[in-house]
Design brief:
It contains four helices and 45 strands. The chain starts with 10 loop residues before the first strand and ends in a 6-residue tail after the last strand. Helix content is 11%, strand content 47%. Helix 2 packs across helix 3. By secondary structure, the chain is mainly β. It folds into five domains: 55 residues, no CATH class; 117 residues, Immunoglobulin-like (Sandwich); 100 residues, Immunoglobulin-like, CATH 2.60.40; 137 residues, Immunoglobulin-like; 149 residues, Mu homology domain, subdomain B (Immunoglobulin-like).
Length: 669
């Protein structure tokens, strides 16, 4: 009997081995398959009848029962009609794509389950979980930041979380210009910038107020920064919030305003007034006002006077609380090249530490109208103020030009030279203007172009005059040691704003009358011998002479005085000198004599120095006059005019006038 056999292309398998079957046998087996099915069905049916209970409503129909059993046999038999061994599983190879697909499905299912579980977990967390998003911190600054004014700031902290906040600490970082005044509650530490709050309960709001003052420039940005740190009740960790507020300085308690003309001729004097005030409740010290002039503005004067060395800075030592002040300055726009608006700005600065901070600023625009006739006055080649010295020659040139589109007729020119030290006897005027007092006047009679000056046409007049010599410096009738000069034009026909045109005023300040006398001597005025050896030099014999230097000054204080000379090679230094001011130095290597005086006051005594030198003529010097000291140079600075003073004095020889012996010929014998 064959076991576990099945039809497979004329072969049978037995115990896992292939067995060849003759074709005749195979055919017989095929013919008996139906019979075998019937037998198997009958066997199964007999077995089932033994195990089941027959329902009352079933009929025992042999034909029907046989058909059922036959169908079951077809299900439970293989293709060869055998019933397989159902106690063993036969493995089959699953395709790779099915394996991957099933694996992905499993992974996605796991992830889905995990996500759903996480969502459920976090959705049902404790309702008191801390987020830090509901701790609200804000800084409430004043509406407007005013420099110099006390202002109050509020730091507000709200706890909108579900848990209490502990160890609440607030630290503020102020701008450098901020001065802490007070706080509610009062701040801790030396910097007054830290507050500690033990606990901030759920739903609670705390407000910290602090008052301070800022002194800072207008429009500057002041930055306040705050850091709030705390620990939530349900977490062992510190959290913090940070807030930053930038505020511009909008105004100040001190300020100023400037007023002046809205329209002006370029050469006309313009007066500007600056009013300043202190609206604070305290006195202010160390203020300054600075005026910024446009190019071409020429400053003339001011009340009060500006700071020394500057014409646009005024110092205010103290400005009382709730008080105001005023200053006035005058100038003109003669240096402006073209007509149009010109802006003058003024600033009020307050000293804070080592720097000045701008607390107020104002400006004014003046419309400049160019003259129909322009005047330009030049003295010694310059249109600006400059210092001069006694005895100097002043050379004047006055240029005039018609800038209008019409003829200008019957022009009258005047030159005003205001001074007590002009020597009018030295006046040279090729146009023969008429002189009255300190004024020279020209009309069309002297200068033809003044009768009719066409559009764009120009002309000039010139003259010169000398200053009085240094003796005028001691004249008690002379009070004004300067020359103030300006020119003026008047028109009989034409339309000029203001009725006349004036040139820029030029001031020539007189330098001090510093002078020095150089006197060689053998005897002094008391007939005391200062020298030695032959009075008249002799070949082969040594003669010593004394040289006296006397500095005189009456007008201004003088600084940085230096007198110098270099001795010839055949002249020896006797190492004998006297001086009552400064330092007297002799350099043996260079044979240079230097006398330095730092300051010589106009009211002080004369500066005096003297020294001895000697000379031994040689045979070749017989019949000659020998040089004792070559050219002597004097340099100094006039402290009032700022001008440098330079003078040279002729060489000293053996031929000189002695106070006792009179004139010596100085010829070597």
């Amino acid at each position: 009997m064959l076991k576990n056999g099945r039809k497979n292309k004329g072969q049978f398998l037995e115990s896992g081995k292939k067995i060849a079957v003759p074709k005749a046998v195979s055919d017989d087996l095929q013919e008996n398959i139906g019979t075998m099915h019937d037998d198997l069905a009958k066997a199964i049916a007999d077995k089932n009848h033994q195990q089941k209970k027959i329902s009352p409503d079933k009929t025992d129909d042999p034909v029907e029962d046989r058909d059922i059993q036959r169908n079951l046999a077809e299900v439970y038999t293989d293709g060869n009609g055998h019933v397989p061994d159902l106690t063993k599983l036969e493995k089959t190879q699953r395709p790779l794509w099915q394996t991957i697909l099933y694996s992905l499905i499993v992974v996605f299912l796991v992830l889905f389950v995990a996500a759903a579980a996480g969502f459920w977990y976090f959705s049902n967390l404790d309702k008191e979980t801390f987020t830090n998003e509901n701790v609200i911190v804000r800084l409430e600054p004043p509406i407007s930041l005013v420099s110099g004014q006390d202002s109050t700031y509020a730091l507000v902290i709200s706890n909108n979380e579900k848990v209490n906040l502990y160890n609440l600490n607030i630290e503020m970082f102020y701008p450098e210009s901020f001065v802490y005044m007070s706080g509610t509650p009062e701040a801790m530490t030396e910097k007054k910038n830290i507050w500690n709050i033990g606990v901030l309960k759920v739903g609670e709001t705390q407000k910290i107020e602090f008052t301070g003052k800022i002194i800072a420039p207008l429009d500057s940005i002041q930055t306040f920064k705050g850091i709030v740190s705390y620990k939530p009740a349900n977490l062992n960790a510190d959290f913090k919030k940070e807030i930053i507020a930038d505020m511009p300085v909008a105004s100040a308690l001190v300020g100023l305003e400037i007023t002046g003309p809205e329209k002006l001729l370029a050469d006309q004097p313009a007066q500007y007034k600056i009013k300043y005030h202190n609206a604070s409740d305290e006195n202010l010290k160390d203020l300054e006002i600075i005026a910024d002039y446009p190019p071409g503005f020429i400053f003339s004067s001011s009340t009060p006077s500006p700071q020394a060395g500057a014409n646009n800075i005024w110092k205010i030592n103290e400005l009382a609380s709730s008080s105001e002040g005023e200053l006035v300055f005058v100038g003109n726009f003669s240096g402006v090249a073209e007509a149009g608006p010109q802006e003058i700005r003024a600033r009020l600065n307050l000293k804070n530490g080592n720097e000045y901070l701008t607390q107020g600023e104002n400006s004014l625009v003046t419309e400049i109208v160019k003259d129909q006739l322009t005047l330009q006055l030049i003295i010694n080649g310059s249109g600006e103020d400059q210092s001069v010295s006694f005895g100097d020659l002043l050379v004047y040139t006055l240029n005039f030009k018609n800038n209008s589109q019409q003829d200008l007729r019957n022009i009258q020119l005047k030159a005003e030279l205001s001074s007590d030290i002009l020597d009018w006897k030295t006046l040279v005027d090729n146009n023969d203007g008429s002189v009255s007092g300190n004024t020279i006047t020209w009309t069309g009679r002297q200068v033809a172009k003044l009768l009719k000056l066409g559009p764009g046409e120009e002309g000039e007049v010139s003259w010169q005059i000398r200053l009085k010599d240094a003796a005028a410096g001691s004249d008690p009738d002379i009070n004004n040691f300067s020359v103030e000069s300006y020119a003026e034009a008047l028109l009989a026909d034409g339309d000029i704003l203001g009725g006349s045109i004036k040139s820029k005023k030029i001031i020539n300040a007189i330098n001090s009358d510093l002078d020095m006398s150089v006197t060689p001597r053998y005897y002094d005025e008391n007939n005391v011998a200062l020298g030695s050896g032959p009075l008249s030099p002799k070949s082969g014999e040594t003669s010593s002479y004394n040289i006296q230097l006397v500095l005189k000054n009456n007008l201004h204080n003088i600084t940085n005085i230096e007198v110098s000379a270099v001795l010839p090679q055949n002249v020896s230094w006797n190492n004998k000198e006297n001086h009552n001011l400064g330092d007297f130095i002799y350099n043996a290597s260079t044979k240079k004599i230097i006398w330095k005086v730092a300051r010589l006051l106009k009211s002080s005594h004369d500066g005096v120095a003297d020294f001895n030198i000697s000379i031994t003529p040689e045979s070749g010097d017989v019949g000659k006059v020998l040089i004792l000291v070559p050219e002597i140079t004097l340099t100094a600075t006039d402290s009032e005019t700022g001008a440098a003073i330079n003078k040279k004095f002729k060489a000293i020889t053996t031929a000189f006038e002695d106070p006792i012996m009179g004139q010596l010929d100085g010829i070597v014998q």
